[in-house]
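Hello,

Following up on my earlier ticket. Below are the three sequence lines again, exactly as submitted.
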Amino acid sequence: MNKEQIMKRLAVLDFIAVDLQLYLDTHPEDMEAIDKYNSVIKEADMLRMKYEEIIGPLYSFRSSNNGDTFKWIDDPWPWQPSANFEINEEEN
Amino acid sequence: MWIYEKKLEFPIKIKKTDPALAKVIISQFGGPDGELAASLRYISQRFAAVTPESKATLSDIGTEELAHLEMIGTMCRQLTADANIDEIKKAGFDAYYVDHGLGVYPASASGVPFTAAYLQSKGDPITDLYEDMAAEQKARSTYEYLMNLTDDPDVLEPLRFLREREIVHFQRFGEALQNVKAYMDSKRQFVIDKPDYMNGNKSKCMKCR
Amino acid sequence: MRIMNTETNNDMSCMPFEEYIKVKELAFAYVPLQKICSYFEPTESLVKGTVFPSLYKPYK
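Thanks for your patience. The regenerated structure is below:
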């Protein structure tokens, strides 16, 4: 997976987790939805490790620093176009 | 507490400079039905919430609204970052420019600075949820008006996403309202039938999953 | 009171919400509870803004 593919896949997985989380807030006993939520979180957690290794730290005070400078401050920040990607519905 | 995540909820990559559009989209940053008001509303109201379901819903939607605030700020920034003085004047962005340059400032499309008067935290969990449902509808309308004002796909895609989130949030607040209502009534008498999922009955929907 | 979802064309196997809403009093708003019937594909979910087809109500 290249940088753009990693960014895109993580955005997709995290979004599914967000939407399922809100559903579970009002349906806390739906075991099927909990199973789906868990499987999405599991895949996202694994991909997040790859993201931080290849692209950079995702969280303030939660991501460890690889390298001899503090990578957190590095560009791009989320509002910069280069931190973003084109979204294409066709590929899943 | 909150943890910042260094990425957008939905990608934004706008190629065409358009200060006139930034001037109206800013309303969803600091306007009456904007994302800042939404987030502050829910993360203020949650302290008076009474059921686990409504506490979680207010906390999580309040958090997601901050991610939307970041998306709106990003759109305003990308629409203006490369604007020259001629474009700024022609777009009618000059009044904003005099006060804020190309910075992103929480104000409405008509230039009124953000105020907490846009939101309420009434201390009554039912009243608050009604306000929240109305707020989601008002934000949905705003996104539709914004969509009417552009045909740039780079702008339309995130606006479409944000508008759909308002619909999902409306549904969740509606469900939280039923949940809070059942809780309030249960102190006196329990008259609302339990929904199927509480009885472990999922037969109606099993085969379509 | 029975509230039907007209879009399912009477397909009772997949009502996207609880079939019965007990309306027990005036001066209160009732929103049906969602029931999951299907999901959008992963990338499609992000593009559309929800993973739930039953909540997808596009403007244009």
